[in-house]
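Q: Structure tokens for this one, please.
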Amino acid sequence: MTERPLVYDLTLEDWERWVETQGEPRYRALQIWEGLYRHLWSHPEQFSHLPKALRRRLDEAFVFSHLTPVKVRHSRDGETEKTLFHLPDGSAVETVRMRYVRRRTLCISTQAGCAMGCVFCATGKLGLLRNLSPGEIVEQVLYYARRLRETGDRVTNIVLMGMGEPLHNYEATMQALGILNHPQGFRLGARRITLSTVGLVPRIRQLAREGKQYNLAVSLHAADDDLRTALIPVARRYPLRELFAACQEYFQRTKRRITFEWTMIRDVNDGLEQAEKLVRWIKEFGLLAHVNLIPLNPVPGYAGQPSPRTRLEAFAAYLEEHGIPCTVRVRRGIDIQAGCGQLAGERLQEGGRPLVGTG
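A: Here is the predicted structure, written as tokens:
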């Protein structure tokens, strides 16, 4: 028996083709689309503006959820919430909701596990289990959109900084963002979407050609190839000169500022010699850039320590003195392992056996 597709895996064009196969007028596709992404309906019976027979066929032909929330954790300050979801095949992903004064930001996952192997990232220690489908990426956003709506609130921003490397699952990620950005659907502005990558150069160039206004955040962490390769093994395939050239193309085509993420690790990459090299790279390629300095978050199996405040401030001051805007990132959700690099699933048991995808 063929598994029924997930409703969120379909584009509006897919829906138009489907309703035609059902002998329905084309406008029914837009009604379904708006029901899913404007009204946030999650069951066929909620589509009361559709004929009863069509609602029944929707129920028979599609599934309306792949995500089962199995554990929710809240930070002590109440500003961060992490949800562990299980997928139909037993793999697991995590999504984080962060509350700021004017923003409600979601950190969403694009893969179960990750193949990049960054030494200070808990997800990377899992290896890649599988890619998420477009609909499984989208459904994380809709889950929290419904939750927030209950209190009169809404999702304002999403960052693709959860489990996985978004550009390693490029086609599914782009389709998911197209659905979320669609003007007749969820209508999340492109400039409210941030794509994070360890620096997959061919995909950054492909993204530049897409012409979208998504924010690009590059996990840099070091400004020389030897150190960066030691921290991010995939970097050996994409030397810094190639990476900065790809960032230059993205900037020139989109006019969007590039963000460089830099996890500050004591006595590893937090010295001023690294700050000097970073400034030289940014200025050589004429980038409009912003640097986020992120104190290392604790990850089992990695012995590195977060940089002391004095080194953070000295690094930031050097960048600012040389015209590079810089922010020392506030650590969010550390007490619930929701910070950068910490997402790896929970060690849950089912019949005494760890579930696939948990860490």
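A few notes: The CA atoms of residues 84 and 94 lie 5 Å apart. The first strand starts at residue 68 and ends at 74.
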